[in-house]
Amino acid sequence: QVQLRESGPGLVKPSQTLSLTCTVSGGSITTNYYYWNWIRQSPGKRLEWMGAFSYDGLPYISPSLLSRTRISGDTSKNQFSLQLSSVTPEDTAVYYCARGTTLGCSDYVCYVQRNEYDYWGQGTQVTVSS
After folding, report:
1. What is the C-alpha to C-alpha distance for residues 73 and 84, in angstroms, rounded to an integer?
2. CB 3 within 8 A of CB 66
3. C-alpha–C-alpha distance, residues 13 and 26, integer Å
4. What is the 3 state secondary structure string of 74-91?
5. How crowded is the C-beta side of 78, counted as CA atoms within 13 Å?
6. Which of 52, 62, 87, 124 could form an SS bridge with 35, CB 3.0 to 4.6 Å?
């Protein structure tokens, strides 16, 4: 049984960098052909795909977030991470990591469905506020 768990601070000040890590157990992040995704949901909005770390070590980022997002992985720890810089209150959301076999979508802002991914973390609330 694959399990994912998000970790990181729940409160970030505006203009700072949000950093989250997803720890995976019960499966390897190098297993063909899975993508390890970051997805968020702001209050009243749909699930937004932010980006992913691929089984072969490549980061993929949503076009709308490309300028301020970094995604990386640590295969020795079976973890992948998200860094979102210059945050504003609009970045307040529940942040999820999830496993899937496809990469977001071609739209500038990519909204996804929960059933597109087979395993999810429980989600972590991140609030951007001074």
Report:
1. 15
2. no
3. 34
4. ECCCCEEEEEECCCCHHH
5. 13
6. 52
Amino acid letter at 98? A
Structure tokens belonging to residue 11: 């409160």
Task: Per-residue pLDDT tens, the chain, 130 aa: give them.
Answer: 999 999 999 999 999 999 999 999 999 999 999 999 999 999 999 999 999 999 999 999 999 999 999 999 999 999 999 999 999 999 999 999 999 998 878 789 999 999 999 999 999 999 999 9
Both tokens of 123, joined, read 């989600």
What is the pLDDT, as a whole number, of residue 80? 98
Cα dihedral 114, 66, 76, 127 sign:
negative
Give the span between the Cα atoms of 105 and 34, in whole angstroms.
Answer: 16
